[in-house]
Amino acid sequence: MNEIKKVTWRSPSNIALVKYWGKKKGVQIPANPSISFTLEQCYSETTVTLLERETKSKDIEMRFYFDGKANMAFQLKMFKFFESIRKDFPLLSQYGLLIHSTNSFPHSSGIASSASAMSALSLCLCDLQQQLDKKKVSAEKFLQRASHFARLGSGSASRSVYPLISQWGKTKTVKGSSDEYAIPFEKNLHPIFKTFQNTILIASSQEKKVSSRVGHSLMKTNPFAKTRYAQAESNLKEIISALKKDDLEKFGAIVEEEAMTLHALMMCSSPSFILMAPSTLSMIEKIRRFREESKLPVYFTLDAGPNIHLLYPKNIAKKVDQFIYAELEQHCESGKMIHDNVGKGPKKMK
Asked: Is 3.30.70.890 the CATH number for 194-341?
């Protein structure tokens, strides 16, 4: 088949500081606002090639390869996603699609791969449709559109299209905030936070027993849901204040509270579930003790899994590295960890 057009985008994952957990009615509408750091080294790189269609049918024609191999499980998810957005992307009915994707990080490593994968895919689709329509839009509008469609594939993916830090979810605290897409927040970020490192300590690489999708749904009957959503609003307001200044202590206290609250919600849902591992708790205890003894601003957070994300400014990286290899490496599965940092956002490769 003849190739019509091709684009490649690289898009990073992100780590939420105030967590999104629970959904309202609608398609991927968050029950509470969230805010996240954009990562640098942990990304998906996706190439979408438009081809002449094999048939005259209007059915979506698509082949998907991950790391060079056909991946039918993800291809089926993508078919569902494409069907939901095809009215906004005429190219899905006009051309065949060949998609190649790869991650810079291993599967089940504690990185939100759906965030990087769906944001990279959405950037490709928006780019290709814009080229076909021959319409010029501002960079701001382009990223907002990509964020909107990334959200439909994975809520957290909406936040991955912006550099450094982004906020998602309608809230009175943030002007211009929306449930439909994330917005950039770097103008409000104190320079110290732009240097932040994120070392991911792999407590376990096993697949989660309960998916995030199921976890979100269980918030509908969680007895603490209403209190949680109020807490998230309050924490967002407080952490924004800390991010504007160099209030690392307030920042760290909120980030750790958010991490522990997320897992507490899992443990008091019905049915309840636990995603922490024994080594997760061991590392948390050591991190708290190290911070108390060293007086260094080193904090942890977790996503919906057992792996620790260690957050700290670059100017203390050498001391933190010494601590990591002396005290925490032994609790990581086969010593596995990933060194990352706050990043510059997506990049068009070609």
From this structure: yes
